[in-house]
Amino acid sequence: MTTTTPSPPPKLRFEHVHKEFSVRAAGRGRGARTAFTALDDFTLDVPAGEFLTVVGPSGCGKSTLLDLLGGLTRPTSGRILLDGEPITGPGLDRGVVFQQYALLPWRTARANVEFGLQAKGVGRKERAALADEHLELVGLAGFADRYPHELSGGMKQRVAIARSLAFDPEVLLMDEPFAALDAQTRESLQDELLRIWRATGKTIVFITHGIDEAVYLGQRVAIMTPRPGRLQTVRTIDLDRSGDDVRSTARFGRLRHEIWSALHADATSTAASAATSAATSDAGDPTPAADVSPRELEASRA
Ligand SMILES: Nc1ncnc2c1ncn2[C@@H]1O[C@H](COP(=O)(O)OP(=O)(O)OP(=O)(O)O)[C@@H](O)[C@H]1O
């Protein structure tokens, strides 16, 4: 008799997630409101230990997706499951790292990392030890007693990552965490993050505007459509990361171009339909351009 081993449940499951916001209805009288769809029928499984990156044009609902994951807001319909349980609010099973480091300026690096541990009820001694261990993990051993204003942008973001990891969340949620950093610091933090991910085996959902960043970090890249945000496609990144300069390889270039093309196809069709509706109607919201810079456009054509 043959027995089949059931596949493990996903760490995260998005089931037909739909999110609407109530917004003012232009031209329909004072106080009139209308529903604005930010996310539409988003369905995706994220296996335990996966590094998933999410790209999409500006305004497509990436941050909304992360807010839903963080439990800061609830889906209008559909649900998000973490280990099979619906997310209904914030919790220490999820660590969040934002673009702005959100460190407490009056606390040292160590005391910032201890913050989440305090909330979890960890005792003083253990807190300090865990904080030091995680500061070391992000390469900041020796900086524990510095205050945020005494640290560079990259170091502050390292502290924010250490703080999120210290309370041992199931999932790490990152909303453009390196966007405010210079290119060199960004690249070194990307490498640090990959190292930390390999060392900890955490499930990571990482939102980014950068196609390069999405390809470099992600095991899979989820590509979203322009407003309302839907999942257009999920691309597996089968990249050999063992070499020195992975970003210069032909494989990296091809993957990058595929994702750029998918985003660009959406932007073109949205622009065309926006032009058509602008010609037939004087109402409506301006359509955001795809979040691909002219430099990226040039690079992927090259
Ligand atoms: N609280 C809110 N009320 C009304 N509309 C909202 C609210 N939050 C977000 N939106 C709208 O939902 C859409 C998605 O916003 P979101 O911030 O998730 O996009 P994004 O993809 O993260 O954008 P960006 O890449 O520019 O940061 C946008 O059109 C935005 O205006």
UniProtKB/TrEMBL annotation:
Residues 293-302 have a biased composition (Basic and acidic residues). Residues 271-302 are annotated as: Disordered. Residues 12-251 form the ABC transporter domain. It comes from the Bacteria. GO terms for molecular function: ATP binding; ATP hydrolysis activity. Coiled coil: none annotated. It holds the Pfam family ABC_tran. CDD domains: ABC_NrtD_SsuB_transporters. Keywords: ATP-binding, Nucleotide-binding, Transport. Residues 271-283 have a biased composition (Low complexity). InterPro entries: AAA+_ATPase, ABC_transporter-like_ATP-bd, ABC_transporter-like_CS, ABC_transporter_ATP-bind, P-loop_NTPase. Gene3D superfamilies: P-loop containing nucleotide triphosphate hydrolases (3.40.50.300). This is ABC transporter ATP-binding protein. It comes from Cellulomonas biazotea.
